[in-house]
């Protein structure tokens, strides 16, 4: 009976921890949340529309579109919820944007999209939109979990001239104010997002690099493996939370 009581207590504690998780949307003003909820007001939908057009556009020496291989984009439902993920062809864990570029250079025989370009963000957001509302489900294979483990270590590592870690802000001080903005819990379930601060769309890696710059640390280039590892850890932290892409943030 005592063991059963302990087991029930552990389940209750785990459930409470899960329920304590909050999307970044919950730290926004009602007006910003309304902007994210309403596709006619969400400025990120402009990038999604661009991505939808690119999905149907033939490109490269192969003269093929995304739709030629994958059909209607609705068939991609669930895909974005699984990234970052180990890619056998690449031999490493990659992001959804990198997966799109691998299709671009391999299947379409076209030049890769530039990181943070409107085209890549648009296609990524269009694919992610198909999974909106689905729970994040990072793969459990050894390579992806190893990347997440490395990302977790980086998440807790103090860096930069300010000697701060991600965890100090987003685990120890979430809900408090930093430079007038509320610190969220670092659940990356809405990327790519439109940020009012940027007046444009951006990737999770852009956001991570902003934080690194903010603590005056050396900022890795877009696509660096440490950024992918951090993305893998953030996906695992948010496992089970619904995908909100395309999100809107202050």
UniProtKB/TrEMBL annotation:
Q: Extract the InterPro entries matched here.
A: Cyt_c-like_dom, Cyt_c-like_dom_sf, SoxA
Q: Which reaction does it catalyse?
A: L-cysteinyl-[SoxY protein] + thiosulfate + 2 Fe(III)-[cytochrome c] = S-sulfosulfanyl-L-cysteinyl-[SoxY protein] + 2 Fe(II)-[cytochrome c] + 2 H(+); S-sulfanyl-L-cysteinyl-[SoxY protein] + thiosulfate + 2 Fe(III)-[cytochrome c] = S-(2-sulfodisulfanyl)-L-cysteinyl-[SoxY protein] + 2 Fe(II)-[cytochrome c] + 2 H(+)
A Pfam family the protein falls into:
SoxA-TsdA_cyt-c
Location(s) in or outside the cell: Periplasm
- Does the entry feature the keyword Signal, yes or no? yes
Enzyme Commission number(s) from the entry: 2.8.5.2
Transmembrane segments in this chain: where?
none
Record's keyword annotation contains Metal-binding: yes
Keyword terms: Electron transport, Heme, Iron, Metal-binding, Periplasm, Signal, Transferase, Transport
Q: What class of enzyme is it?
A: transferase
Boundaries of every Cytochrome c domain copy: 146-238
Q: What is the protein's quaternary organization?
A: Heterodimer of SoxA and SoxX.
Question: What family is reported?
Answer: Belongs to the SoxA family.
- What is the name of this protein? L-cysteine S-thiosulfotransferase subunit SoxA
Source organism per entry reads: [Empedobacter] haloabium
Q: What gene codes for this chain?
A: soxA
